[in-house]
Design a protein that fits this description.
mainly alpha; 84% helix; 5 helices; globular; 128 residues
């Protein structure tokens, strides 16, 4: 299976599941931000984000104007946020909290529609 298709399925399902979890249990996101105040949780989260970003980038660093660029941007975003959490933890957490508070509905809808778009690209549900 081509890595683009595999990653489209992976990220598509992940984003849909994450959207459902946050929609059905909105307190979970507040709990995550509270947990980021714990140094151990913060370091583990930063390392996981860096690893996920690096693996995604190493397997899929495609910069063409198609649905494949979304997968590449997810990888680079994960790497970038992981590095920021590791290097500038307090400022990064404050920025993420501000973005979450102001754009929570937009973020949830972007998760959902990006997940649907990637799943459609992978499975070809709606012909393009």
């Amino acid at each position: 299976m081509e890595s683009s298709i595999f990653l489209a399925k992976f990220w598509g399902w992940y984003l849909i599941i994450f959207f459902l979890i946050l929609s059905l249990n909105p307190k979970r996101i507040k709990q995550i931000f509270n947990d980021l105040n714990d140094e151990k949780f913060l370091i583990i989260t930063a390392f996981v984000a860096i690893i996920v970003g690096m693996v995604n980038i190493l397997f899929h660093n495609v910069w063409e104007l198609s649905w494949k660029i979304i997968i590449t941007l997810i990888g680079w975003t994960s790497l970038f946020i992981g590095l920021l959490l590791f290097i500038f933890p307090k400022r990064t957490i404050a920025g993420l909290q501000l973005i979450n508070i102001k754009l929570v509905q937009v973020i949830y809808m972007l998760l959902f529609f990006t997940g649907l778009f990637l799943l459609n690209a992978a499975y070809g549900i709606v012909p393009q």
